[in-house]
Each structure stands twice: as structure tokens, then as C-alpha cells.
Specification:
Largest sheet of chain A: 2 strands, antiparallel
Number of domains of chain B: 1
Number of strands of chain A: 2
Distance between the termini of chain B: 53 Å
Order of helices and strands of chain B: HHH
Shape of chain B: elongated
Shape of chain A: globular
Order of helices and strands of chain A: HHHHEEHH
Distance between the termini of chain A: 62 Å
Radius of gyration of chain B: 17 Å
Oligomer: heterodimer
CATH superfamily of the largest domain in chain A: NADH-ubiquinone/plastoquinone oxidoreductase chain 6, subunit NuoJ
CATH topology of the largest domain in chain A: Four Helix Bundle (Hemerythrin (Met), subunit A)
Number of strands of chain B: 0
Helix content of chain A: 55-70%
CATH class of the largest domain in chain A: Mainly Alpha
Structural class of chain A: mainly alpha
Structural class of chain B: mainly alpha
Largest sheet of chain B: none
Number of helices of chain B: 3
Radius of gyration of chain A: 21 Å
CATH class of chain B: Mainly Alpha
Helix content of chain B: over 70%
């Protein structure tokens, strides 16, 4: 397996950015599950979710990155903070946020990491991401005319929209029905009669 | 860039999330750990979408939508537990244990 910095189909700066980002995200994730202050856990979660958005940007998935910022940091974190306040969680440091299964949890986590890491390294250890392929114009027959994808600035987002509303239309509708059902269910559960 | 570096980052985040689900007692914190797991899966999907086409990005969007629904219903359930028991300690919810 080649060292990370020598594999430059993207470039060396991309790998440096990724390394710094990965360290930040892993540290923030560990703080989410170990901190004794519940509000701090929510704020560390913001770091992980924002780092996720930057990872999507590195992987050239702009639309998903923006959706991640809007949905997660805009809505879900606020929902978590609401939940913390409404359940009157201890706002300062408290020692009873963890149960007494820390060793069990650590063993399970490390074992899982070893198994998954071994499996992906063994299977995809040498595969490189060829980002240059996306800059080539690709003919798209589904729109009737030949559309150049990837040539303009928002070509990928166009292609994503085409693919959601053609190939994945039924799952998309099912997800919207699921969201409606979930919101109605949340209202029914949370209202007090 | 190697595909593997993204997969390994996702594996670390996934394992940390599983640790959180096992260890935390507060219901809201367990939901946060579930979010960590879902985000790790999303990194995998997006990394593979640069490899095999846009389907991965579509499924990442679906995962984000389902995660939003899950947090909404999950927090409603946690609120209901708090209202009924004055506590969100999920280790005390052991009525199903014989």
C-alpha cells in the first residue's frame, strides 16, 4: 500500500487538509461520547457534522454538503438543544451520564474498528479516487437533448437532480411520505392531552 | 487520494458512535451517538459515489432525510419518557426484563 502523501491523483494539499480534518473529527467524536457536560456534547457534534460537510466537499458532492449544513447544523442540532432543555438535563458537569459498561463499550468499539478496518483495507486498499474523470463532458440522453454534465459549475448538481427525479423517483416519494408520517407521529407523541 | 482513507475515517466514527450507544445513559446522548453512526455511513456512501456514480449521493440524501425523521420521533419519545418518569435514564427502562 502506498503512503497517503505519495498517492497524488488529487494533490498533496488535499491530503493534508483531509489529515487535519480527520484528526479534528475523530477528536470531536470522541469528545461527544466521553464529555461530562451534555451541552458540550451537542456542540462537539457540530464540529463532527461540519467536518462531514467539508469531507463531502473534498469528495466533490457540493449539494449533499450544503444539505448537510442546512439539515444537520441548522435543524437537528437545534432540535437536540431543545431536547436537552425540555428534559431538564443537568446543564453543568455531571458524573452520571455514563453507565458502568465502559470497558464493554470500548472492547466492542475497538473490535468493530479492527474488523471494519481490516475488511476495507483488504478490499479497497489500493483504489484511488480519480477526480479528473468528473471534468470530462458526459452526454446525457435522458433529458432528450445532449446535456453537457460536469462542464459547467453546477453540472454535478444537475446530474444529481436528474437522477433523483428519474431513477430514484419512487424511493424519493416514499421518503417524503415517511417524513410526513414521522412529523405527525412526533406531534402526536409530544402533545399533552 | 485513496478511497481507503475515507473508509477508515468512517470506520473510526462508526466505532465511536457504537461506543456511545453502549455507554451513554441519557436518551438524548444516545440519539447523538446514533447521529455519529449515520454520518459515518454517509461518508462511505459519498466516497463510493465518486467511484461508481451518483447513486451514492442520492442515498446519502435519503439517509439525511431519514435521520431527520428519526431525531424528530426519537426526541418526542424521550420527552414522553421524561414526562412519565421524570428522568431520561434509559437504563431504568427495564420493564421488559423478566
Amino acid at each position: 500500500m502506498t503512503p497517503l502523501l505519495a498517492a497524488t491523483t488529487f494533490d498533496v494539499p488535499g491530503n493534508v487538509v483531509f489529515a487535519v480534518l480527520a484528526v479534528f473529527m475523530v477528536v470531536a467524536a470522541i469528545r461527544v461520547v466521553t464529555t461530562r457536560n451534555i451541552v458540550h456534547a451537542a456542540l462537539w457534534l457540530v464540529v463532527v457534522l461540519g467536518g462531514n460537510a467539508i469531507v463531502y466537499l473534498i469528495l466533490q458532492a457540493e449539494f449533499v454538503a450544503m444539505t448537510q449544513l442546512l439539515v444537520y447544523i441548522g435543524a437537528i442540532i437545534v432540535l437536540f438543544l431543545f431536547g436537552i432543555m425540555l428534559t431538564r438535563a443537568p446543564l453543568g458537569t455531571s458524573d452520571d451520564l455514563d453507565n458502568n459498561q465502559r470497558w464493554l463499550g470500548a472492547i466492542v468499539g475497538v473490535l468493530l474498528l479492527l474488523v471494519i478496518g481490516f475488511a476495507v483495507t483488504r478490499t479497497w486498499g489500493d483504489d484511488r479516487l480519480d477526480f479528473a474523470a468528473y471534468d470530462l463532458p458526459v452526454a446525457d440522453e435522458t433529458a432528450g437533448a445532449v446535456v453537457e454534465l460536469g462542464g459547467s459549475g453546477n453540472g454535478r448538481t444537475q446530474a444529481l437532480a436528474n437522477s433523483i427525479f428519474s431513477d430514484y423517483l419512487i424511493p424519493f416519494e416514499v421518503v417524503s411520505v415517511l417524513l410526513t408520517g414521522a412529523l405527525i407521529g412526533a406531534i402526536v407523541l409530544a402533545r399533552r392531552d | 487520494m485513496l478511497l481507503n482513507q475515507f473508509l477508515l475515517l468512517a470506520a473510526v466514527l462508526f466505532s465511536v458512535g457504537v461506543y456511545g450507544v453502549i455507554v451513554r445513559r441519557n436518551g438524548v446522548l444516545v440519539l447523538m451517538s446514533v447521529e455519529l453512526i449515520l454520518n459515518a455511513v454517509n461518508i462511505n456512501l459519498i466516497a463510493f459515489s465518486t467511484f461508481w456514480g451518483l447513486g451514492g449521493q442520492v442515498f446519502a440524501l435519503f439517509v439525511i432525510a431519514v435521520a431527520a425523521a428519526e431525531v424528530g420521533v426519537g426526541l418526542a419519545i424521550v420527552l414522553l419518557i421524561y414526562r412519565n418518569r421524570r428522568s431520561v435514564d434509559i437504563d431504568q427502562l427495564d420493564e421488559l426484563k423478566g
